[in-house]
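[job 4417] fold queue: 2 targets
>>> target A
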Amino acid sequence: MRAVIEISKIKGLIFDFGFTLFYFEEASLKKYINCYQKGLQKSVDFLFRRNILKTESIKKEFINKFNRMQNEIFKERNKGHQEYPTRTLFRRICRSMNLDEDINEEVWEELPNLFHSFEEEEWIPFENTHNTLTQLKKVPHLKLAVLSNHPHHTMIEQVLNRYNLSQFFDEIITSAEYGMRKPHIDIFDYTIKKLGIKKEDKKNIIMCGDEYADIMGAHRAGLQIVLIEREYKFPYEKDIPLKDICRIKDISEILNLI
């Protein structure tokens, strides 16, 4: 097991969001897709009520275009790690259908909230998340951050706020906010800078996450790494080609490791 540096030297702890601090109730790919499809329908119904989508056929066209573009973006994300925020996706679809001139800022803000609303309800903190963060927050001079690959920054903030967890973090960073996704090194460097930690001290920062993007991105960025082993395995997951990784099964174990 890879040794972790002494607590007296640690300057920062960066946590992934999903399956690290929170779990998705009865997680499955099918359930994810169902949440997004219900969210899309809710968004389309909202546009219909606002008289932006005026007929059922236009609603159907919007849904088809959205699904096609979302699939294309999924492939692009995997290639270059660029993020495409949900708000941007809605803008692209509306522009392609000449609807964007009818939409004000209030609507642009509401659309991604509606799209992710069903997903948002499914995220629940692990049993030991709150207590672990409470203990870590007591450590002098230790900076804490959330770093999530998610296309809607507001959703991550809202879930953290709902469970009164935002108070523990000095920074909440998402790929939607920054524009790149883990494992791209730049988003780790950006997080370190936001925490106010010098680059030369990055070896004194721990990244705790559950998948390839967290572990390999942090490893390449020069951070310490802790892999939290989740029960659910997603299709097409990348194997982590590192030996001697520090592994934990529960978030509370990080208190023992450091």
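>>> target B
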Amino acid sequence: MNQDILFFFDKHPEALPLYEALEERIRSEIQDVTIKVQKTQITFANKHNFAFVSFLPARKAKERPDIYITVTFGLGYRKESPRIDAATEPYPNRWTHHMLISQVDEVDDELLGWIKEAGAFSAGKR
């Protein structure tokens, strides 16, 4: 495990297994992924950034679990799902989706499908 990632989770060590499960799935299912750890987020990229992990509070405090990570990904359309906590369109036909993950089993085929789609969408940008 990278020291920068451990430092990122220093104040939220209980959320590290959630991230580890996500990173393992992304690395095993998407080729040529680079990971960049920043102060407020961890970025997954191919040609461009396509998925992010943060502690962004995408839900009201009373609705947030104690232990979570926020997974953010971009698509060319708004994905409709009760699992998605927020979706915004910062640019025409570029939708940013946020979802909270609080259990390792939420890192499932559906989420990975969306992240793979985000990777393909990102790779096609100019």
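[job 4417] complete. Note on B: The helical segments are 3-8, 16-29, 109-123.
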